[in-house]
Amino acid sequence: MSRQTCPLGGNRRRGTDLALCERMSTRLPLGNNVSNHANRNEVLHRMLAASHAQRLNPALDCTNFDADLRREVSMRRVEREIVEAERRSVAQSVAKAPTEAVAFVKWFESLKQDGPGQNDSLFPWLAHTANHQQMCWFLTQELAGEAGFDDLVAMSQVKLPSRPKLEMARNYWDEMGQGNAAGMHGPMLGRLAGALKLHDPGETVWEALALGNLMVALATDRHYAYHSVGALGVIELTAPGRAKLVNAGLKRLGVRGAARQYFALHASLDIRHSAAWNAEVLLPLVQDTPEVAPCIAEGALLRLRAGARCFERYKLELWSERANGHEPRLSA
Question: Which CATH architecture has domain 98-323?
Fold first, then answer.
């Protein structure tokens, strides 16, 4: 649900070892049954998350450039296969998006109500019913599964035209607290994690990792640049309602205002961000080059679909055990 969690390429799945995942991938069971498919997704997305962390985190040196390059090429192929498969899944919906700029923005804004995962029952439940352990499990998944919004915006705006670039710069500057460290959005989540003593027990669900992997792929591969613009824009469009409900749940559970500042802020701030993104990024891009409209639409639908998949998995983990009278097996 959240717009931003750990820094881009951060260790979203602590303890994941890329070499181990690569060895596991060669032993995956063949076949098309649901269990085999889930196992394959589990390994591939853990591999990809570990690869992103290795590739994007700052480093002092490269001890074996040729080996690292071979590994990166291999993982980039995996990444492309995953993204292309996701693109095929939304092709029919993308075909309905108009390419005239004003009509396109209207279509894009309709995703707030009609897009995948919107008005999901998970969030009223978090607001009104979830206990402390369940809320912590949800937040742990969210923090483990997404890349930093600020870094994604910075990478996506490279070489875009001036008007969209300037709005993305304003958005980024807000993420940076307009130069005030206390107002930076990423550390707000860190304060929440500290207040709730959140930690990743190494059991992040693959759907959460897949969402983060998708966002990194779109932002770092320039042939997906317009997809990233759509994905980031739809986060701004759809996050406020969910942030408001999560904030309500945290308040109900007694979490102090300073700790839940991130969700309280984005329940209102992203409404303004979304309006500016649509007017100053999407509208001029489609006006100048109508051919980018399907790419922007596709990126938005890919992000919403990935989020909806997370929501379904979260409910499966949280609600199935609740129905059986047990606490979630993944606790904070």
Answer: Up-down Bundle (1.20)
